[in-house]
Amino acid sequence: MMRKENIPEKLKPLLKRWEKQEKEFYISPDNLFTYNHHNLKYKGGEDIPLAGWFASNGKADDKYKLSKEDVEDIAQELLKYYKPTKWTLILDWHCNYQCPMCCYHGDGMSDTDYYKDRGGQKKVISKDKAYERIDCLVEYGINSLSIMSMGEILLYPYWKEVSDYAHNKGMDLWTITNGSLWTEDIVKEAANMGYTDIRVSLDTISYETYAKIRSNKKEYFERAMRLPELLMKYGIKVNVHFVEQKENKDEKQEFLEYWKDKKVDSISIAKQFYCENETVKDMYAEMGKEYIEGLCTAFGNMQTLPDGNTHCCCGRMFEATSEERKLESIGCQNVMEDAINNMRTAESEMRKICYRCGMYVPYSDEKIMDGWKIIKNSERETWMKL
Ligand SMILES: C[S@@+](CC[C@H](N)C(=O)[O-])C[C@H]1O[C@@H](n2cnc3c(N)ncnc32)[C@H](O)[C@@H]1O
Ligand code: SF4
Ligand code: SF4
């Protein structure tokens, strides 16, 4: 007998469709949240109960595995319930570094039309425009905001005013920085302005390597290396970030041990992505990853670029967008619904981008070791202090 009372509301429409197709199925927490020995997290399905089972023929069959197509159907059905509570507002492009790997300022970027097409690299968002975007996000229910630059956030002239404005509207703030310009006074101000989390991108603990892949200014290196402990002193959670490149690939372990010793909140070791003709190069094909539609955990990490165009993940930031996707004119709800609907249609343009996206992350695996939770996926490994 089919245990209909156990079927989560959100899955009923899908199961009705499956029944109509006379499809055989058996769903239990064991197979719903596991695929190919990996744990799955469905966007929009976070509240699905982890108990009970339901089957098309009423018989429990522990051996029944959901197929790739089944998982895709479920993931896409649940996606429509997804509503982000975090958002990234990119307000500036300027940087005091030119890291060779960087997709915005690094090798080769000056030859492209990327900035020209987006109103020029010198463009900075006015205070009023930033406030307008924040109002729109508050109304939608965003309570955690990343105030970001595609360069160095402290170079954004209205950083303090805009941070204050967002915090006074009840938002927690976070950002990513190269760390080169922070003093103790600025850290204190950031803590007062509601910054709860800051990532410091370092890529090495050696000045020699730093000079090659980040900046050769020693005072920048020293300030960046001091920043994590200063942030912790003022109660801001810190993540130190390492992007694996040719020049630092043998320094991962040293980096990890150094920052574990300093007891930072988290350490991330990420793969470098490569941009080619202004798109993130297709690493999926090279790495032989299996692409499961609707399951990319990066989907829904909303980003509004300085020109107002809004993207539903960092994998799409290089995509040319139309005027219609501007946050202040159409609002968060439309941007989100548009993204989700597009993701769920058979001929989706968005899905085509996903298939060649280097940032595709379908699942993460976790383990606990020596007081750290280690979360590993195809794009990065993150050590979280317990
Ligand atoms: C564009 S930066 C902006 C913030 C700041 N300038 C910094 O370096 O942290 C945002 C993040 O992207 C990372 N990043 C830049 N280029 C990358 C690449 N080719 N592959 C992977 N990560 C990259 C940086 O290390 C940084 O953590
Ligand atoms: S500091 Fe950040 S934004 Fe600036 S060049 Fe380096 S990676 Fe790019
Ligand atoms: S695969 Fe890439 S483009 Fe598609 S949702 Fe993930 S990050 Fe975005």
UniProtKB/TrEMBL annotation:
Keywords: Iron, Iron-sulfur, Metal-binding, S-adenosyl-L-methionine. Residues 80-306 form the Radical SAM core domain. The keyword Cell membrane does not apply. One of its GO terms (molecular function) is metal ion binding. Coiled coil: none annotated. This is Radical SAM core domain-containing protein.
